[in-house]
Amino acid sequence: MLGPTMPKDAQAHGAIWRDDGARYGRVSRLLHWLTLLLLVLSVPLAIVAADLPASPERLILLTLHRSLGVAVMLILLLRLPWRVYNGWPQTGPNPWLAKAARLNHLALYALLAGAIVGGWAYTSASAFAVGLFGLFVLPPLLAPDKELAEILRQVHQVTVYALLALIAVHALAALYHQHMLKDGTLRRMWGK
After folding, report:
1. What is the pTM of this model?
2. Which of 6, 57, 84, 187 pairs with 146 at a CA distance of 20 to 30 A?
3. Which CATH number does the domain 12-190 belong to among 1.10.10.10, 2.60.40.1180, 3.60.10.10, 1.20.950.20?
């Protein structure tokens, strides 16, 4: 545990990993940008696959999409305890903006989890496997059921669209903080 009894170099070393008032730590930044990267890769795969007829190419794209979804799930399983341990980001003196930021973060986590579980349930009901790049396969959440699979496909799709909309709001809020409020929020997420 870092604290006043630790040497200053150890305190400084710990500070680069954890968030502080001046910047986000390396762990938060890594988990944040890795999540975004995996989503940027995953969503287009599903969109392209949706327009393809049943084929080996479609199966490959959807298998990659599912693997990326599992990777996002694993990152989320790291992010949530890290957020609890590390605390919530500081948002400045405006209480309205602080509440909005907290709600946005909570909604992002909820929609991300909902999209992942919804996709896993949809895939299970469709009688397909969900795994991580052939390293392991997750157990199915549901027995195969075509009618339920169609409902879950729609739920997954709507959840992902809601997640993408909220990510856009999140990005616009970061730009607002950076360029209108000039409080350095975006710089802190880049680690500068």
Report:
1. 0.84
2. 57
3. 1.20.950.20
